[in-house]
Amino acid sequence: MSLKKELSRFLVAGISAVGTDLITYYLLLFILEPSISKAISFILGTIVAFTINKYWTFEKHKKSYKEIFSFMSLYTITLGVNVFVNDIVLEYSEIIILAFFVATGFSTVLNFIGQKWWVFR
Q: Domain GtrA/DPMS transmembrane spans what residues (predicted)?
């Protein structure tokens, strides 16, 4: 599959995952502090991202524990980056939506690179 097609599919998967992340984040902010809300929402978005990217974006249908382990490792790293960037932006701006999208931008770039050339290669 061409890189352009993979990027297009990754974008659709990403929008779905980010939508899950954003809605969950805002709902959890009513009952939890921002860092915990962000971590939980990121994990739910991660589940959506794994499912769509594995089966549709990168068309991998074989059951693979190595892929799951690699994906979880990658997302553990990007979870830390996501929450860290979210906290930094909130510290300086207090604009929740700005923090969310800046954090998402950082983790998105890391996730595509990691999935394309490590997890689903």
A: 9-120
Matching residue, tokens 């190595």:
66
Distance (Å, whole) CA 27 – CA 88: 21
In the chain, domain spans: 3-119
DSSP class of 58: S
The rounded distance, in Å, linking the Cα atoms of 6 and 89 is: 30
34-52 and 96-114 helices, crossing angle to 10°:
40
Q: Would you say 48 and 17 are in contact if contact means Cβ atoms under 8 Å apart? A: yes
CB 45 within 8 A of CB 39: no
Which runs of consecutive H residues, i.e. helices, occur in the chain?
3-28, 34-52, 65-93, 96-114
Question: What confidence tens digit (pLDDT) does each residue in 69-118 have?
Answer: 999 999 899 989 999 999 999 999 989 999 989 998 999 899 989 998 99
